[in-house]
Design a protein that fits this description.
Elements (H helix, E strand, L loop, with lengths): L4 E12 L2 E12 L3 E5 L6 H9 L4 E10 L2 E2 L5 H6 L2 E4 L6 E5 H13 L5 H14 L10 E2 L5 H15 L3 E5 L7 H14 L5 E5 L13 E6 L2 E6 L1 H10 L2 H21 L1
Parallel strand pairs: 3-10, 3-11, 6-9, 9-10
Antiparallel strand pairs: 1-2, 1-4, 4-5, 7-8, 11-12
Helix pairs in contact: 3-5, 5-6
């Protein structure tokens, strides 16, 4: 593992349908830490999340992604998952006809490469359901079929709790949640955080950070990280909005462009 990093991103550039979205992004997430990625709409947050999980629509044009020191830039999503990468999606997909319990047990078998004893699986499932304040009947429902927005997000955190990934990427898990659902999801995230699990929490708003305390906060704009700081940076963004950062970056870019044209 490079310098204790679970996730290391080096000068990553990503294009979608020929359009460059991520532009030289570098980031290191040490073991056991929670890092928040914030930024205005269109800054590249979801592109980053999908790229880290290996979505084929997102083309890495240069740069590297390392998980626990291993290069995973060109691995398939299932190979990344087996190595400990997990993505909690912004818009989870429904799978009619497949119950949550069967889906979860099959997922654990796929990741661990072996069957989980029924008793052990049930104990872990009930423990995770209790933390997320979910009734046992939830596990008998079809995956995301007829789920409310809050239930879909709880289902993502439930998967995470059972799979115990080394690196959990959460793409705007707080979007569309009422305050009670937000607190429940945050409790699940806090329970999951451990020396064995690091979390990259991608969010547009500061409110989930009232319940999940990040070790670091990063601001993403124009496909790269333009500011990093502690929890106080999120509070400052809540107070001032993104303009105070984005306007400064735009001004810097304008100066650089002017100098470039003068030297041409």
């Amino acid at each position: 593992m490079t310098n204790g990093a679970v996730l290391q991103i080096d000068d990553l550039r990503v294009a979608v349908e020929g359009k460059q979205i991520v532009n030289g992004l570098s980031l290191t997430v040490p073991a056991g830490e929670v890092h928040a990625i914030m930024g205005p709409n269109g800054s590249g947050k979801s592109t980053l999340a999908n790229t880290l999980m290996g979505h084929p629509r997102y083309q890495v044009t240069s740069g590297h992604v390392l998980l626990k020191g291993e290069e995973i830039t060109n691995l398939r999503p299932d190979e990344r998952a087996k190595r400990g990468m997990f993505l909690a999606m912004q818009y989870p997909t429904s799978i009619p006809g497949v119950t949550m319990v069967n889906f979860l047990r099959a997922s654990m078998k796929a990741i661990q490469g072996k069957d989980i004893p029924v008793r052990e699986f049930r104990e872990r499932l009930l423990e995770a359901l209790a933390v997320l304040k979910m009734d046992e009947s939830f596990a008998r429902r079809y995956v995301n079929e007829g789920f409310s927005g809050g239930e879909k997000k709880r289902a993502e955190v439930l998967q995470m709790s059972l799979l115990r990934p080394a690196m959990a990427v959460m793409d705007e898990t707080d979007s569309g949640l009422d305050i009670d659902a937000l607190r429940t999801v945050a409790d699940g995230i806090n329970t999951l955080k451990s020396p064995e699990t690091s979390i990259l929490l991608i969010t547009h708003y500061q409110r989930i950070l009232n319940y999940v305390t990040p070790d670091k906060v990063h601001v993403l704009y124009k496909g790269k990280i333009v500011r990093s700081g502690g929890r106080e940076l999120a509070s400052e963004l809540e107070e001032k909005g993104y303009d105070w950062i984005t306007n400064a970056i735009d001004a810097e870019d304008a100066v650089l462009a002017l100098k470039g044209s003068e030297n041409a």
